[in-house]
Every structure is written in C-alpha cells, then in structure tokens.
Design brief:
Length: 99
C-alpha cells in the first residue's frame, strides 16, 4: 500500500478558477499555493471571512464544529480555511481571484 495522498480538483465559480488539493491541505491553503485568492482572515474557522457555498463535492473539517450554523451547513456553506476535500469540489465564491 502507498502512503501517497489522493489529489482532488477544486473549481471556483463564477470566475471558473481551478486548483488541486494534495495531502492534508485545507481548501484555503491549497488555493494560496496555486495563486488563487479566496477571502480569508483568522484561518481557524471562527471569523467566517472565507465563507462560501459548496456547489458539489464533499469536505471534512479539521475542527469539530466550525463557525457555521446548522442551517448554513444544510444549505451547503463551508469554511475553506478548515475544510479538507474528500472528493473533487466545486465552490461558489464571487470574490475569488488570481493573485
């Protein structure tokens, strides 16, 4: 068995930006490494600056309960600073850009 991590692709709408997440990186960390700028501030799941909608795909969180309400979670919102993909992911973040 290999110890390698799976690589997941992230597409960010509406700008149609794309980047890969490898290993144990969060969606935000991988975006920054790929020169995709997502809004961010605290990086620990509390400030909600990075809040965006998960259009498709699945994520897990590095903390037990990130700063999302149950309703926001059910509506598909995620916090990329503490979210790690478990599948390919499509995010909706109108403020995303290339840096």
């Amino acid at each position: 068995m290999s110890d390698s991590f799976e690589i997941f692709t992230v597409q960010v709408l509406p700008a149609d930006l794309q980047y890969d997440v490898e290993g144990d990186l969060s969606l935000l960390e991988a975006a920054e490494m790929s020169r995709v700028q997502l809004p961010s501030s605290c990086r620990n799941g509390t400030c909600r600056t990075c809040l965006c909608r998960l259009v498709s795909g699945e994520v897990t969180y590095s903390i037990e309960w990130p700063g999302l309400s149950a309703q926001e979670k059910s509506e598909g919102y995620v916090l990329p600073c503490v979210a790690r993909p478990t599948t390919h992911v499509v995010l909706e973040q109108p403020d995303a850009s290339v840096c």
